[in-house]
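U., I forgot to send this yesterday:
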Amino acid sequence: MNRETIQQLRQLPVEGVAERLGLRVTRHKSLCPFHDDHHASLTFNVRRNTYRCFACDAHGGTIDLVMRHLHKDFPDACRWLADSTNIIVEEYRPKTPSAVTPLKPFDAARYAGFFERPWLSDEAQRFLFEERGIDRRVVRWCRLTSWTDRHGTHWLQTPYYDTEWRLTGMQSRNLDYGKVGSAADVPRFRFPYGSRCSVYNLPVTALLSEGEPLYITEGCSDCWAMLSAGHKAVAIPSATLLSEADKGLLRGLAERLGTTFHMFPDRDAPGERLFMQLREVLPGLCHHQLAEGAKDFGEMFAAGRIA
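Result:
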């Protein structure tokens, strides 16, 4: 894993990471999970982005918290953090003579055929239609497909296209991740080398009419939910991954069509942080509140709580 990605993980808000781990944070404190705590002795320093328990002296940053709480080593803790916050992880490559050779670009021709005749396994259909309630027309529009590897792991494959339907990257999602009996060392997401996966569902921007709103979501699954709810939407997992070309494209929509941008941020610190980062790029970005108890738009949609 490269140093830039590790630094990005270390900069995730520590209280948001704690909440993703299931800790209840109130006024920068929570019960310490590392000893039999009854008086909220785990304290978070948001300025330093660290935690410390004044009873058992457990302390550290975001990665340390995941390592200790989930009993993971450093690489697995980083992968868990990346998976839970939609940060794309690139494997670290030492600076040896062979490693400084430029990587081959994404081989679109190799993968394009997967999405010409999409096929959904029973596991993929269960995930999309039963768990998420996604409209079948949205699945066809997004050209989602699936496969099962030789170890029996089920994957959902999501293609990324530019505005002219040219394949620029793809994401494979492990549908067995976290389930009993699944392989612990198989990651939640995989990206082929060279994949450009910054803005998802760019082809929809060609269908925008003058003054029509465009919704921004944090991940692909929330984007499918937003599309299923009848809104045009794209997904941006991380503002720091936006290229200047991507920023120019979004700003151009506002200038050319009067497009307004809207977002239902995830109900956690990383979600609000993403909103604030995106508002620096799109000053008119409008904040919408999720229904009480919903952690993201996809969950709110699946529960039928859309007005």
